[in-house]
Design the sequence.
């Protein structure tokens, strides 16, 4: 499947806030109620469309546990977008946001788009963090904010897509250089000029051009 | 460090001849680096140290490491000195010793080898050192970057794990290393690849980060730039890193697939069909690339990842390219077999790829492929183009390398796995109809396999047999089709069935390998296929050969395996036996094994299969690397079958019930479609159940709600009733009476209150009277004084005296009736209280009477029961007595009659004799003496006989006497019985007396009631006080009388109770006697016999029950052993069970509620009844109250009368009592 751009995302936040569930809901459209601890980093991908352009999202779901923190830091640099997730039913996860944000800002490129997500909005009865608090935090730190539910899929799609829109906007504005892969953005196969795709011309591959195909 | 210090102390000793030793030089140089302030000096010293670092590695490392690290940290501005320092460190930590390296004399080479490792250990002890190195990678200068890369590579090589952790901890570490791949300087890029190869070994986290850092893109870019397989060692390095990243890392595999990198692999397999040959490098590149492909589609991976990769490989043309390489000429055999393996795994169980593979053709120009030589050597000049056929030909060609032949088998397995149509097509080529149509006879797949099966080469036999296994595995239809296959080995011989041929092979073939192949084929064929089993059993000697094999004990390891296989095959003939062959039914075969081999030994033999080393090797993976053909004995798919059936077979032969076990065990191993259908069915069933239960639940809930509502309304009504006046209602009659008592007490209270009111009224009246009297007295005085004023004083004194006396009289007169009145009233009150007490007493007595009545009733009942029992007993006794007595008496009478008859007869004879004697005497007197003597003799004889007869008759009479005595005895006992009966009658009469007493009691009760009524009447009509007093006195007397009566009655009841107790005891005694008699009369031999029979039957019964229990136990164990139920069903059934439990609970609750309801409604009824009763009573009481009110009014009237009586003598005062105010005014006017 061809695409115009590829964006790399990372999902960060405390353990058990529903990072993997958000990813699973976005890529597979299903919800897994059992908490399966993520070891290191897991990978997921999905194609979306923004302004009639096919964009491939490559999402790296990190482990929230402290033990994996040093590993997950390695993923900050190469990501164009980050979903910073907290659990609206657990205040401590909200309190740790500053720590996460500092970490992300320190290790990522400065243009990385960060989306703040208050997950588990379906558990309204157990809410511990008000929506206004999330909004205030996002405003203060220049983040986009949304409350989602990986269980009911509410706002999940929107969260991923609006992040992508923000990145796409920055791309159009020239803030991002699509040719620098360290930004977490890659041009699709039809945009690349180096002959790295395998389907078309054999100009750069002298051995494949002659014969067996 | 201790060690090194030791070395230094040795080395620093000045050597003879003033020539500085290497160690001294090193020390001097290090000092210079440390102390010199000039950069040039330090740089030179570093350069010199680098030069010495190979030869004097230990000295440089031991003394200089810290200094050098310091240089790296401080002199970063000068690339040259950094370069030297890095180079020096690189040498110090080299994983391999240098040629020129000089150790201590006694230092072995191995110690030198791990010197680098030890220095590495020291170096990475401080994580900052690693970070420092990673930081240096950012320096673009070649002199820094290159040695830094090499140094890190050395570090990783020596201490991979620790360094991986260090790099993970530094956030930018991996990305800096990844940047090396983009370095324009090839040396750095290539060394960076080596570094990555080491770094990515066995650490999934690093592998993932590397992949995240676009490693796939960069590596494939390098591969492409280098020209794919022709690209030399750099491509190999890239592929090694790729392989590291993908091996055992599902996340990266998904990423690889998602990132469309598989498509980028496809061009790699463009190979020119030329004779240029394959360089060693190209071969290893190609093999690595094939390994990468296989890593993605390895059958052990997660199935959805495998499937996704398979479909991409098919759609992007990778499979097609691989197949064209497969058909190309000049491909080295090891590459070829690896390609076949890769193709096998790409098409494995994936229908679209299998279909594609089926259509692959060799290029139309005859290829100089190795297969062709086989074709020409077989003497037939066919031109075969189907890739599958060409591969099969290679497989059955014993001149092909065995690795390649195994690969073809693997490929065939991949082609046939989950591909029923392919299996059908293969088997169809063996069946007669197709064979006739086929043009190129002898070159169908089936034909090739048949040739292989009966060839002289054991490995070819094995391969062909296993190929056929794959053609029938999980496909019962093809197993049945295969039974139809007949073939003739020589043109002359008649065709024999394939199975017969196979049976012949296992009996005659010398090679263990060939027999193993055929045994596996037979096992796979017979499993889950009863027709095949029955076909096998009718082959002569088939079973006996297996039995012989299993029972034999000698043989090498391979023979052991064969015997074990025979045992398994035999077990399968039992397991899947439909009992159609009467000679070999399941039961008979089990018995045969028991007799000829012994169950234990048989089972032990069978399990040998799973214990064989070859099994352990094969069971893990469908493809195994072998070193030579002789190792090859078992096949992976057979191992799966064995594993699934072993336990079932063990149980069947071990003595379980075949049907059950099969039902429990084998249905799970049927075709997946079957299982699915079963699951679906059970699921649907469960769904239906669930729905029904839910419905029931809802209904019950509704009912529950309704009932609850009813209960609520009822309880509300009950409460209402309770609160509507009648407080504390009781249901039992005793309670009701108590209630009545209460009621009466209330009424009494009310009456008392009224009486008190009346008293008040009276006292008021008295007060008024007194006042009046005083007032009037004063008036009279005043009048008198007035009169005195007009009269002489002596008169007045007399008058005054008169007046005083009059006043006193008046006062006395006025006081007297009032006092009397009060006294009367108090006495009345007392009487009333007494009356209340007596009423209460009577009530309690009444209650007691009720209780005693109850008890009497119970006693009556008991008595009745006893009477009944007595009657029954009497009947039985009468029966018992009448039967034997009648018989006995009749017998005795009969005997008596007989003996009497005999006596009569004898007397008659006597008379006759006498007559004859008389006759004879008369004759004898005539005839003479001799005759007389004769006659006399005769007479004597006769007399003797007569005496005998007499004795006999006496004896008989004695007997008769005895009998009579017996009869009299019996009669006596009968009399005794009669006496007992009369006792019983006595009891009856006692009972009657009791009843009479009871009636008396009832009567007395009636009397009680009457008195009560009287009392009530008393309450009602309260005429004047005297009559009341009289009545009260009478009542009290009556009460005492009644109490006496009650007491008497109680004592009577007590005595009657005692009597009944006695009666009961008597009855008990009688009962015992009767039982004894019963026991005596019943103990006949018949009864004993019957009892014995019964006991026998009981014994049998218990035995049967024991067996049943054993069966149950077996079933339970079987059920426990049975594989788990389908996963989705369990929660459902649990849910259902839960619901059922809930339902039961609901039902129980409903029942309870209904009970409550009925109870409540009963209560309600009772209450209503009571209410009406009480309302009646209330009405009555009200009536009585009215009466009392009337009384009170009367009393008032009476009072008035009294007042009148008082004023009889003084008219004025009388008037004043009537209307005092007007009276006073009239007095004034006077």
Sequence:
């Amino acid at each position: 499947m061809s695409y115009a751009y590829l964006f790399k995302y990372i999902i960060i936040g405390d353990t058990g806030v529903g990072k993997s569930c958000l990813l699973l809901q976005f890529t597979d459209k299903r919800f897994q109620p059992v908490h399966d601890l993520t070891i290191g980093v897991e990978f997921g991908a999905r194609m979306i469309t923004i302004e009639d352009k096919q964009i491939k999202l490559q999402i790296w779901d990190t482990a929230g546990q402290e033990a994996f923190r040093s590993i997950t830091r390695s993923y900050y640099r190469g990501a164009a977008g980050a979903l910073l997730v907290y659990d609206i039913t657990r205040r401590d996860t909200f309190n740790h946001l500053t720590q996460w944000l500092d970490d992300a800002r320190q290790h990522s490129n400065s243009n990385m788009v960060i989306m703040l997500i208050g997950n588990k909005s379906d558990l309204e009865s157990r809410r511990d963090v008000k929506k206004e608090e999330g909004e205030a935090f996002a405003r203060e730190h220049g983040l986009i904010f949304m409350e989602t539910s990986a269980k009911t899929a509410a706002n999940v799609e929107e969260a991923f897509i609006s992040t992508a829109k923000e990145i796409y906007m920055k791309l159009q504005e020239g803030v991002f250089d699509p040719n620098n892969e360290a930004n977490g953005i890659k041009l699709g196969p039809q945009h690349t000029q180096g002959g790295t795709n395998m389907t078309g011309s054999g100009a750069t591959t002298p051995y494949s051009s002659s014969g067996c195909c | 460090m201790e060690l090194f210090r030791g070395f230094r102390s040795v080395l620093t000793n000045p050597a003879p001849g003033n020539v500085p030793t290497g160690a001294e030089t090193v020390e001097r140089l290090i000092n210079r680096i440390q102390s010199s302030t000039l950069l040039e000096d330090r740089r030179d010293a570093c350069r010199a140290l680098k030069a010495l670092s190979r030869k004097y590695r230990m000295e440089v490392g031991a003394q200089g490491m810290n200094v050098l690290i310091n240089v790296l940290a401080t002199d970063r501005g000068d690339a040259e000195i950094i370069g030297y320092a890095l180079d020096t460190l690189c040498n110090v930590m080299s994983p391999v010793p240098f040629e020129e390296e000089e150790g201590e004399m006694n230092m072995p080479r191995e110690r030198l080898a791990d010197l680098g490792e030890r220095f590495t250990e020291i170096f990475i002890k401080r994580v900052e050192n690693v970070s420092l190195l990673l930081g240096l990678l950012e320096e673009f200068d070649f002199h820094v970057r290159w040695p830094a890369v090499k140094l890190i590579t050395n570090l990783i090589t020596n201490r991979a794990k620790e360094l991986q952790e260090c790099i993970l901890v530094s956030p930018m570490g991996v990305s800096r290393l990844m940047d090396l791949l983009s370095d324009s300087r090839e040396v750095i890029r290539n060394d960076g690849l080596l570094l990555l190869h080491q770094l990515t070994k066995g650490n999934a986290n690093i592998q993932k980060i590397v992949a995240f850092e676009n490693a796939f893109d960069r590596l494939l870019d390098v591969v492409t730039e280098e020209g794919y397989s022709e690209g030399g060692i750099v491509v190999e390095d890239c592929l090694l890193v790729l392989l590291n990243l993908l091996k055992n890392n599902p996340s990266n595999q998904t990423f690889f697939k998602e990132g469309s990198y598989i498509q980028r692999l496809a061009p790699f397999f463009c190979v020119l069909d030329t004779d240029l040959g394959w360089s060693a490098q190209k071969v290893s590149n190609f093999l690595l690339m094939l390994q990468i492909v296989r890593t993605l589609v390895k059958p052990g991976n997660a199935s959805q990842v495998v499937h996704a990769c398979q479909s991409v490989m098919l759609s992007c043309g990778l499979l097609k390219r691989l197949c064209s390489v497969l058909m190309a000429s000049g491909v080295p055999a090891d590459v070829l077999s690896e390609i076949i393996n890769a193709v096998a795994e790409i098409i494995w169980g994936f229908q679209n790829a299998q279909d594609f593979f089926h259509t692959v053709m060799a290029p139309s120009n005859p290829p100089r492929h190795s297969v062709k030589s086989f074709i020409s050597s077989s003497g037939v000049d066919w031109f075969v183009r189907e890739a599958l056929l060409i591969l099969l030909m290679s497989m059955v060609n014993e001149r092909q390398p065995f690795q390649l032949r195994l690969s073809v088998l693997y490929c065939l397995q991949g082609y046939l796995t989950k591909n029923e149509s392919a299996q059908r097509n293969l088997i169809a080529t063996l069946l007669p109809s197709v064979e006739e149509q086929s043009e190129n006879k002898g070159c169908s797949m089936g034909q090739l396999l048949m040739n292989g099966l009966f060839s002289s080469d054991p490995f070819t036999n094995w391969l062909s047999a296993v190929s056929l296994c794959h053609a029938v595995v999980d496909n019962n239809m093809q197993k049945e089709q295969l039974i139809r296959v007949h073939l003739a080995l020589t043109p002359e011989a008649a065709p024999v069935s394939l199975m017969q041929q196979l049976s012949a092979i296992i009996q005659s073939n010398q090679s263990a390998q060939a027999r193993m192949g055929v045994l596996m084929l037979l096992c796979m064929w017979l499993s889950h296929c009863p027709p095949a089993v029955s076909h096998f059993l009718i082959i002569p000697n088939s079973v006996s050969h297996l039995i012989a094999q299993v029972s034999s004990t000698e043989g090498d390891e391979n023979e052991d395996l064969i015997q074990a296989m025979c045992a398994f095959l035999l077990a399968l003939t039992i397991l899947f036996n439909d009992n159609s062959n009467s000679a070999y039914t399941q039961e008979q075969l089990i018995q045969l094994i028991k007799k000829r081999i012994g169950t234990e030994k048989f089972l032990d033999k069978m399990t040998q299969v799973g214990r064989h080393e070859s099994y352990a090797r094969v069971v893990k993976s469908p493809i195994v690397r072998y070193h030579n053909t002789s190792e090859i004995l078992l096949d992976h798919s057979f191992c799966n079958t064995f594993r699934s059936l072993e336990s079932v077979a063990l149980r069947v032969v071990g003595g379980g019930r075949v049907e059950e076990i099969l039902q429990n065990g084998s249905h799970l191993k049927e075709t997946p479609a079957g299982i699915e259908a079963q699951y679906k069915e059970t699921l649907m069933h469960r769904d239906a159940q669930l729905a029904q239960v839910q419905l029931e639940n809802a209904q019950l809930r509704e009912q529950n709600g309704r009932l609850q509502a009813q209960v609520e309304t009822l309880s509300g009504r009950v409460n209402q009733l309770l609160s509507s006046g009648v407080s504390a209602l009781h249901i039992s009659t005793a309670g009701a009476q108590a209630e009545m008592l209460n009621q009466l007490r209330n009424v009494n209270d009310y009456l008392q209150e009224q009486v008190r009111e009346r008293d008040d009224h009276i006292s008021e009246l008295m007060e008024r009277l007194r006042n009046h009297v005083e007032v009037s007295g004063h008036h009279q005085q005043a009048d008198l004084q007035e009169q005195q004023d007009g009269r002489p004083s002596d008169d007045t004194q007399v008058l005054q005296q008169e007046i005083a006396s009059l006043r006193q009289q008046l006062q006395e007169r006025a006081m007297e009736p009032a006092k009397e009145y009060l006294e009367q009233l108090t006495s009345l009150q007392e009487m009333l209280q007494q009356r209340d007490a007596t009423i209460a007493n009577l009530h309690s007595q009444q209650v007691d009477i009720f209780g005693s009545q109850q008890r009497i009733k119970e006693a009556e009942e008991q008595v009745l029961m006893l009477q009944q029992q007595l009657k029954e007993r009497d009947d039985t006794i009468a029966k018992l007595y009448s039967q034997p007595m009648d018989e006995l008496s009749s017998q005795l009478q009969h005997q008596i009659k007989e003996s009497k008859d005999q006596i009569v007869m004898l007397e008659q004879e006597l008379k006759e004799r006498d007559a004859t004697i008389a006759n004879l005497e008369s004759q004898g007197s005539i005839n003479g003496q001799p005759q007389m003597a004769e006659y006399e003799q005769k007479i004597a004889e006769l007399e003797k006989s007569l005496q005998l007869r007499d004795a006999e008759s006496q004896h008989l009479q004695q007997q008769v006497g005895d009998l009579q005595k017996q009869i009299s005895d019996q009669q006596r006992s009968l009399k005794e019985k009669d006496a007992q009966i009369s006792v019983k009658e006595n009891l009856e009469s006692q009972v009657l007396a009791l009843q009479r007493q009871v009636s008396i009691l009832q009567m007395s009760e009636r009397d009680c009631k009457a008195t009560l009524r009287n009392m009530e009447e008393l309450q009602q009509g309260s005429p004047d006080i005297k009559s009341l007093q009289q009545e009260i006195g009478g009542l009290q007397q009556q009460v005492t009388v009644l109490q006496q009566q009650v007491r008497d009655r109680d004592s009577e009841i007590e005595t009657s109770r005692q009597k009944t107790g006695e009666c009961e005891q008597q009855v008990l005694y009688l009962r015992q006697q009767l039982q004894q008699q019963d026991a005596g009369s019943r103990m006949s031999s018949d009864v004993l016999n019957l009892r014995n029979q019964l006991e026998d039957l009981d014994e049998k019964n218990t035995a049967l029950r024991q067996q049943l229990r054993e069966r149950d136990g077996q079933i339970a164990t079987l059920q426990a052993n049975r594989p788990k139920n389908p996963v989705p069903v369990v929660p459902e059934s649990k849910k259902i069970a839960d619901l059922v439990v809930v339902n039961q609970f609901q039902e129980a609750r409903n029942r309870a509620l209904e009970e409550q309801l009925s109870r409540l409604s009963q209560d309600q009824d009772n209450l209503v009844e009571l209410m009406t009763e009480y309302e009646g009573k209330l009405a009555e009481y009200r009536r009585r109250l009215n009466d009392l009110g009337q009384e009170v009014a009367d009393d008032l009237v009476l009072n008035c009368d009294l007042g009148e009586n008082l004023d009889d003598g003084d008219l004025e005062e009388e008037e004043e009592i009537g209307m005092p105010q007007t009276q006073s005014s009239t007095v004034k006017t006077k």
The two ends of chain A are 21 Å apart (CA to CA). The helical segments of chain A are 19-28, 69-73, 91-95, 97-107, 131-141, 156-173.
